[in-house]
Design goal:
Layout (H helix, E strand, L loop, with lengths): L5 E7 L12 E4 L4 H12 L7 E5 L2 E2 L4 H8 L6 E8 L5 E7 L4 E7 L3 E6 L3 E5 L5 E6 L5 E8 L2 E6 L3 E9 L5 E10 L5 E7 L4 E6 L3 E6 L4 H9 L2 H8 L3 E3 L3 E4 L5 E6 L6 E6 L3 E6 L4 E7 L4 E7 L4 E6 L3 E5 L11 E4 L5 E6 L6 E6 L4 E5 L8 E3 L10 E7 L3 E6 L3 E6 L4
Parallel strand pairs: 1-5, 14-18
Antiparallel strand pairs: 1-2, 3-4, 3-5, 6-34, 7-8, 8-9, 9-10, 11-12, 12-13, 13-14, 15-16, 16-17, 17-19, 20-21, 21-22, 22-23, 24-25, 25-26, 26-27, 28-29, 29-30, 30-31, 32-33, 33-34
Helix pairs in contact: 3-4
Length: about 425
Amino acid sequence: MENQTKIRVIFITKEKEIEVENTPIFVPLSLNPYGLNEVINHLLEKDPPINFAFLVDGEFLQESLGEYLARKQQTCETTLSIEYIRSILAPKYVSSFLHSDWVSCVKSVDSKKILSGCYDGISRLWNEDGEIITETLSHDGPVKSVCWVENERFATSSMDQTIKIWRLKKKKNTIITCHCVFEMKGHAMSVESIAVNLQTNRLLSSGADGNIGIWDIEENDWVIDEEKSIKKRKRNELSDKIITKKPIYMIQGHSSSCSEIIFDSKDCTVGYSVGTDHSIKTWDLITFSNVDNRVTQHALFSICCIPSMSLLACGSSSQHILLHDPRISLKSTPVQTLKGHTNFVVSLSSCDRNNYVLISGSYDSLVKIWDIRVPNGSLYSIKRQSGKKNTKVFSIDWSNIFGIISGGEDRCLQIDQINDL
């Protein structure tokens, strides 16, 4: 090894707990990621060793250092800065839960429950063994979006133009049932997405009519007080009553379908929406006004926040994921573009346990895992285990308990687990 050609390198990382001294050292050009792993673990004196991945100029290193330099037409006289990150192992398939129709939306909660919405109009609650805890015919049309309000309450929206808030009830024999607390009306077409913020007790909705709604989901004080004061029979009658609510505010947000709306992950007074009119819009939820409008080149179908980077990820008909920074004034140019899907990107979710990991679902039948520091391709692609070809993925969610949850045209809710995040 002493006779091998060497190059001077500096190892860097953004994670303080695995940081090594940034003094340049000489390593052989023949070292590949496996060899670099041994070097870093030796410097860290880690036992058991940690699996690392390596980036050079923002690109994952998948060859020896010599091969990389040759491909980039660089010489070994340079000092190479190599960033190392914890490696993400390939996801493992866990299970699939079969539905009677297309699975349009999925959402997990930290109490080991998964909520799914289906084109048969039914919302289902599943446990980790694939058993239905409870189900309800929640709408007169396909369910388009679901979200948790808290552990015992959830919200659904539908093509039937309504939004409903549901409360779970546990009876003495441990059977769980659903009771509709509110029905919310105001959209003129399908309610495509909903998002909830518990701090403000507000729900945002986006519709195929282009409208954006803001709703109050707090259970009225007079209902709570009266339930405490009346007899049991009257209390049961009251609990079966469905209250119809109108929006606090409804605004024409987009010139065509508003595909998705979300709250800002750090500021509950700010919301973001995307639409098939190619635009990303920022909303002041106090004044109900549009404060920023960015027009892209393609229809947009999904959006999510990446809190650690203060970025918005947007899925488009261009088959790409666009990363925008809402803090800067560039009106249309994305900070970064993630390429790899071959059809519309219709669902996105960021990872709570890794600041740089994003997952996406597409009509190309794939769920992809991305490290946003690496723009030249996804880390992994997850196929549908149903075996059906060309089956669209409609919805995805990242769960700290279950892993990656997805629903699609194959009528399955699929779970894939990543154990090292």
